[in-house]
Write a structure and sequence with these properties.
The protein is of the alpha/beta class. The chain is built from 22 helices and 29 strands. Helix content is about 35%, strand content about 20%. A seven-stranded parallel β-sheet has the order 10-11-9-12-13-8-14, sandwiched between helices. A six-stranded parallel β-sheet has the order 15-25-24-16-23-22, with helices on both faces.
Length: about 725
Amino acid sequence: MQYAEVAVIVPVRLYQTFHYRVPSQLQSELKKFSRVEVPFAGRLVQGFVVGFSRPPHLQKVKDIKRVLEQAPFLNDDLYETACWMVQRYLCSLGDALQCIAGSPVGSSQARQENGLVVADGQFNQAVLARAPKQKITLEAARACPGLTKSQLAAKAGVSAAVVNALLAKGLLKEAAAVQAGGHEAMPRAAIPPLTAEQELAVSQLRQALRAAGPSAWLLHGVTGSGKTEVYLRLIDETLNMRRQVIVLVPEISLTPQMVERFRARFGQQVALLHSALSQGERYAEKARIRAGQAAVVLGARSAIFAPVPDLGLIIIDEEHEHSYKQEESPKYHAREVALQRAAQNKAVVVLGSATPALESYCRARPGGPYGLITMTKRVDQRELPKVHIIDLRKELAAGNTSIFSVALQNALAGRLAKGEKSILFLNRRGLATVVICRQCGGVMKCPRCEISYTLHSDGWLKCHYCGHAARAPGICPCCGGQTIRSFGVGTQRVEEEVKRLFPDCRVLRMDADTTARKGSHRQLLHEFAHGDAQVLIGTQMIAKGLDIHQVTLVGVISADITLHMPDFRAAERTFQLLTQVAGRAGRGSKPGEVIIQTYDPGHFSIITAQNHDYLGFYHKEMAVRRSLRYPPFSYLIKILFTGLNEGDVMAAAQYWQERLAEAGRNLAVRDWEILGPAPAGIPRIKNRYRWQLILKGMASRDIRRLAAAVLEQAGTRYKQVAVSIDVDPLNL
């Protein structure tokens, strides 16, 4: 009789597995890491086979019901990563394996699509002039040959029907699959020469690659210093060593220019992994990766789990970005997983950013575990943009109640007159951010969440947490008053104001409302870069990865939105956003200018951003963190309790607080404290009440021991309350 050890995908103790009997009809089919369906607590659940062993006793051993798939992209290397994640992030082994393996894919979905190329011969320009979407799609196919039908549609920002029409006309054709082998390089003349700083960076990192041991490096380069070209040279070196590369970007849909550069340099050796892919597309890309046909994996956070055969290099671009942290269990950070995978595979990790996370820069200081490489100059001797700070208090005192200062209005008018492009940044979407009754002071709030609605230009009030929407009332539902007014500014309001001031200006807006459709990010950015639009308005998504040479002006509508958030990282986020969005200006032959509007012009995060002074910001902010014992001078764990009954949630949080204090005494843990329990920053979302505890200690291992000990004994005490553990949280 054969028995399998299964890690189930349900809340259980951290390393807990369960034994099941393997029926005779499944014995030839079942393998290590197979995804199976098993009976558990009166229901059928999924899990992964992690081994075969005889249970310590033979009573009540149940049968595996069926094999769902072979989970072909799990292997011993990734299993070791999963075990590390259990210890690091206090999740179950089943959850860790599910995170790495992803959702199961049926054989019908796993069929690989053929790539498409433009058919030989000239296409009829007159016909395509009447079909602009088909023309855009052909241009995209010509720029990036080999994309599948769905990938091409996403890149061009069109529907699959447009691609099908081109196939029917014979203007597109299927290309033969590219086999494994050497990567396709650009003509040598098209590869730009390196600056002295780039040359030094490549030389140091090339030595690290050849050292055949794990190492981590922080590449700190100002915006426009050419970090991407350094990445490309290192990838070339790694491929020549017959090893593979994983490149992480914050959001793949927002970095089309980087995707195009990678495909132009390495052709079909590049595999894309991101959330916009269908299950079948993801399966096909992973199959190419596992087979060694795609040696360069480019993707967002979860691409760190790509099943590469021989991992030699991991690059994390914009390593400071919070999107590298997963908000669902297991709440891993891709940077930490990258370091673990590099240690397992003797690989090199390169963390690139103009504004590194304080924790990363601290690790790169002398004596730290990271090497540090600095690039202080832009390529082609371009100057960093000049940054001006506008005090909105003085604007108001002078009688200017517009959302634009006089300086920003004049700068916009000047760029429009010269035919140059401008970017306006505001990290808040919608028309207005708060709707208030001036008679009773009541705020229009979502009935399911403890947050105020945002007013949108279509007249609807929308909750940006649960999506609930309601018509904006004309009469206050609390007091019946008719003096309801909206306050605050969102991107829709900025768009309206630009059109009012400059009626002939063509404006594009890029936020969560305008980019909901697949491929819309690429379409908007392509239109702004190559079309006649003169102004792009957007949230933080426009601060990432844009390299549009015609942009000479960046305006920050309000720097105070992130600065005064109730979070100890508010100053850091403000500095990073201001520096990153400022870096979009002046990347071509013409100098750039940045105008930052604020009510707090003397804050050090704004002053240091104005001066492009990362070190100045680092030292000031680290002094604040040190005095308050915040990370990186301590470690945090957030434990969140959610449920439909607030009394149950409060009781569960209080119970955990008592058990944690008891565990701290029993384990003799020193220098730690419990903050809370208290209502979470948003005390209710989707009708679920939220309370939280924060563990704060000087040793990460100690507070993880405490949380793990209580999780073992108290995890199921309040079954109606969900408990979520976040090690090293980025959002408090």
